[in-house]
């Protein structure tokens, strides 16, 4: 099954839903960044969360989510473009922590206290950044709080990552249900009732439910209109040319320093952990 993002509406467009399966995406992030189980869960939830927000993106638009807490995992940053390409990284990928009091991966403890920032770039002139103080650091609740405060839409957010004993990703994904102001309160009550009987989202995905299935489970007994399905993947647009530009931007003095002291240079892309190697000759060409 491919990773996918599905969008749907209900209640005359007053309920907006995005659901995603991100198991492969999170597994690729895990392999690239060599994340511990709790770091896989934190990064996976942020990758899934930003993807679920990409509802309105077109053409060159992008959304960046930054979760900057004071916990041992450090910051988590992910972005998504209109093509469903997602990338992200976590500051301290190797940090591991004991389980929390519920016996679960302690994402909240790893993230700590801080803020969540969402930057939306619609590909036009301006970007918009909104933020909220983290509620629990568990990502789902924090994102729901952001949507309520910043976008004034009562929202239900569920993002989850299940890690296998061998540290690979067993299942990952999420759902956002947003209630627009003119919606019917009965529909919301019904969704809340449905939720009471549902297993955690990562379990539903592990059991083989698709993104459509998950929407049907959350919106059981409600008429749903499916809008589109998109294949998604981990993709970083970095390449050697872009890295060359960054090297040039260091300035002539800095570059000469590197050439004289180290001879060659290896540069790493934060987002995808791809390493780029520059020989002495290549660095000298950048000086011209
Ligand atoms: Zn990259």
Relevant terms:
Hsp33 domain, six-stranded mixed β-sheet, CBS domain Like, alpha+beta, globular, 2 domains, five-stranded antiparallel β-sheet, 288 residues
Structure overview:
By secondary structure, the chain is of the alpha+beta class. 34% of the residues lie in helices and 30% in strands. It contains ten helices and 13 strands. The strands form three sheets. It has a six-stranded mixed β-sheet, with helices on one face. The protein has a five-stranded antiparallel β-sheet with strand order 8-9-2-1-10, sandwiched between helices. The protein has a two-stranded antiparallel ribbon with strand order 12-13. The chain is globular and about 70 Å long. Bound molecules: zinc ion. Zinc ion (ZN) is lined by residues 236, 238, 269, 271-272, 274.
* Top-tier CATH class of the largest domain: Alpha Beta
Question: What's the total number of strands?
Answer: 13
The radius of gyration computed from the alpha-carbon positions, rounded to a whole number of angstroms, is 20 Å
Structural class per helix/strand content?
alpha+beta
Summarize the entry for a quick read:
The protein is α+β, with helices and mostly antiparallel strands and 288 residues long. It is built from ten helices and 13 strands.
